[in-house]
Write a structure and sequence with these properties.
With about 270 residues, this protein is α+β, with helices and mostly antiparallel strands. The chain has three domains: about 80 residues, 2-Layer Sandwich (Alpha-Beta Plaits); about 80 residues, 2-Layer Sandwich (Alpha-Beta Plaits); about 40 residues, OB fold (Dihydrolipoamide Acetyltransferase, E2P). The protein has five helices and 15 strands. Strands 1, 2, 3, 4 and 5 form a five-stranded antiparallel sheet that branches. It is globular, with a radius of gyration of 24 Å. The relative contact order is 0.11.
Amino acid sequence: LGLKRIKIEEAEAGDIVAVTGLEEVSIGDTIASLDLPEALPRIEIGEPTIEMTFGVNTSPFSGREGRFCTTRKLRARLYRELQTNLSLRVQDTDSPDTFLVKGRGELHLSILIETMRREGYEFEVSRPEAITEIVDGNLVEPVEALTIDTKGEYVGALTEMLSKRQAQLTDMLNDGHDNIRLEFHIPTKGLIGFRSAFLTATRGDSIMNTIFLGYEPWQGKIITTRGGVLVASEQGIAVTYGLNNAQERGNTFIEAGTPVYEGMIVGMHARLQD
């Protein structure tokens, strides 16, 4: 029951139907009878809070992994995504090979990136940044409510991590069984890169959710320290001997037999310098 499609003349409340023959229909539109053309309230879609650039791959290995590598293919795919991804925004830039893409968060854009990668598109992206605006002459930035469900042993580490990201603890609840709920008020820029650090710090034993709240005065830049990286000195194929030497200085991302080019980041250095 309900596992196949059947042709019907009418549908009732609760039915899931597929309609064909209508052009330029968007999410939130109402299909109504000519006798009673009353539209339902449109679904409100939140505005983007994160932006990043998409561009053609400019590395020395361009064209080796993807089937669609040109600007024309990339542009067509991004603008086609706008037909079904309502919270996405795409803009042309001064560079014909680069496009500005805005979304509702890191996860939103990362899903798009992974989907396009699996479809065979090859491109490069920039670091995501929070979208700021000017309101009444003042610079404002998006802020979100962050809710974390975790264990008591991780509360200290999470609070310290988030305080460095300009987050403010607004509430903490304990159910008496060592299950803690933390609620934070945090600028969107403070959430960039936090999810992976969060999963590492809690060993995957916690859950985080965010809700967009609005715009508030900009709180300034978040001071971060970047660890050093291991960089390939020339183009070629990585060999076991070379990787063993590199691993004495940090952790490598690649394995023996991986093609590398000069300037390619191949690992993290144990110290701050590259």
